Amino acid sequence: MWQEVDIIVNSAATTKFDERYDVAMGINAFGAMHVQKFATNCSKIEMFVHVSTAYVQGSSVGLIPEKPFHRGETLDGAKISYLDIDTEKRIVEERLRGFEAQNATELEIASAMRNLGIDRAKLHGWANTYVFTKAIGEMLLEKLEENVKLIIVRPTIITSTYKEPFSGWTEGLRTLDSIFVAYGKGKLKFFVGDPNSTLDMIPGDMVVNFMLVAMAMHPNQPSHMLIYHIGSSLRNPLKFADMNWLMYNYLTQNPLLDTSGKPIKVEKSKILETMASFHRYIAIRYLPFLQSKAIGEGFFVLLEFVHKKSL
């Protein structure tokens, strides 16, 4: 294979926002590095295409420059100014050894490693483990040989396809898909967010088509590395409120079926713009059903926990 491969496309990733830190580092960060090492052993390699995410840029607004991350770089708002990837790797290894010494259960290890990932991400300025480890993966690709063209593709939220292989095709539940399904099953009654905020989504086949065009054009570009952002918010912005209406309209005309084969009737979901309105909604709709004082106290503890997590 090393004598035959000339183009490598790396799209492997775990996209869970709160993935275990060791798992996310292994796939999103060091997985990219391992594929890069394989590429350097290919005698005919000409191009390496790496699929990242637009959200490695954090909470930046406006036009986002298509520029690379350099090793050690952090985002604005980081609590420390340098990202030491070797230190992050060592922290993961030490934590896992500690859990082994304590005979911790798999459930305890999984919970602790998820929390560790979120903590390390926020320490360096990223919102969650997914985007943090994808950014590290980009940094690790800096070592790619100069004679190999590198394309880093950063799509926004990838949805089901627009046309190919047919409209609406998807495999599994990814990103927003789980929200659509939960709403269609009548399980999701409200959303928390700004109705005027823009959701940047891009169909999967458009991302693939763009990658093919970039691969065809890249050999003629003088730069060793090119980065492309793929999104829709500039030319075709979709407001949160509009998506809410589209879901209701579509699922009213094309309802999902329950286990007995009957159509599931959906209601217009509410958009709660603040955590205060979320607290009021929960208290009015669900608190009367909590008869026990102990349960009620536990409920407010849960609300406080949700509020802190949202900050």
Automatic annotation (TrEMBL):
Which keywords annotate this record?
A: Lipid biosynthesis, Lipid metabolism, NADP, Oxidoreductase
The record's listing under Gene3D superfamilies reads: NAD(P)-binding Rossmann-like Domain (3.40.50.720)
Keyword Chloroplast among UniProt keywords: no
Q: What is its EC number?
A: 1.2.1.84
Q: Which InterPro entries match?
A: FAR, FAR_NAD-bd, NAD(P)-bd_dom_sf
Q: Which Pfam families match?
A: NAD_binding_4
Q: Where is the Thioester reductase (TE) domain?
A: 2-211
Q: Which reaction does it catalyse?
A: a long-chain fatty acyl-CoA + 2 NADPH + 2 H(+) = a long-chain primary fatty alcohol + 2 NADP(+) + CoA
Any GO BP: long-chain fatty-acyl-CoA metabolic process
What GO MF terms are annotated?
alcohol-forming long-chain fatty acyl-CoA reductase activity; alcohol-forming very long-chain fatty acyl-CoA reductase activity
Say which domain of life the source belongs to.
Answer: Eukaryota
The residues forming the signal peptide are none
**What role does it play?**
Catalyzes the reduction of fatty acyl-CoA to fatty alcohols.
**PANTHER family reported in the protein's UniProt record:** FATTY ACYL-COA REDUCTASE, MALE STERILITY PROTEIN 2-RELATED
Q: What's this protein's family per the entry?
A: Belongs to the fatty acyl-CoA reductase family.
- For this entry, the protein name equals Fatty acyl-CoA reductase
